[in-house]
């Protein structure tokens, strides 16, 4: 009985060691060169999927699954210059990056902001193959207790109910100039 257990332990240890060496030898492809889809050597900023040379518009770790939601921009973002990208996943393992082509990315997003006393709603919206995404940052001080919710919601084509990935902690957020850069989500 001891021999099969010992073999099992050695096999598991070998698999773990192979995985560790494979992870250390692979290049970090979590960030991309500013003007192309080529990987860059830059590491992401802490608690984001945005590179150090990018501006963090929104970023937070979500509760389930344990991933990070980030909305990243070039430092020179304007309505006709720079780029904006949504990223979901973990550093080094980005599962979704939209859009892949950074050129003209501002046209693919909409921005909505509604503010009044005790009430602040901010959304950045985009669509991928019929799926509607909304990066949201909502505060309602009129409710008792106060309701504050941030994260990303996704609505599948033909489905009335959205799935939300809520932040585990307060997000890093800086929406400065987004209203001037992106089209309004309100008609």
Description:
The structure is a single chain. This protein has one domain (about 55-185). A hairpin with a 2-residue loop joins strand 6 (about 120-130) and strand 7. About 15% of the residues lie in helices and about 40% in strands. The strands form two sheets. The chain has a six-stranded mixed beta sheet with strand order 9-8-7-6-5-11. The protein is mainly beta.
Present the secondary structure layout.
Blueprint: H1 2-25, E1 54-62, E2 67-74, E3 84-90, E4 93-98, E5 110-116, E6 119-128, E7 131-140, E8 147-155, E9 162-166, E10 172-173, H2 178-181, E11 183-184
Parallel strand pairs: 5-11
Antiparallel strand pairs: 1-2, 1-10, 2-3, 3-4, 5-6, 6-7, 7-8, 8-9
Oligomer: single chain
**Structural class assignment:** mainly beta
Helix content: 10-25%
How big a fraction of the residues is strand? 35-45%
What is the typical, i.e. mean, pLDDT?
80
Quote the distance from N terminus to C terminus: 72 Å
Total count of strands: 11
User: Rounded to an integer, what's the Rg over CA atoms?
Assistant: 20 Å
What is the spatial order of strands in the main beta sheet? 9-8-7-6-5-11
pLDDT < 50 runs, ≥5 residues: 1-41
The shape is globular
Order of helices and strands: HEEEEEEEEEEHE
Summarize the biggest pleated sheet. Answer: 6 strands, mixed
Number of helices: 2
Task: Please describe the structure with a list of short key phrases separated by commas or semicolons.
mainly beta, six-stranded mixed beta sheet, single chain, disordered N terminus, 2 helices, 11 strands, 187 residues, five-stranded antiparallel beta sheet
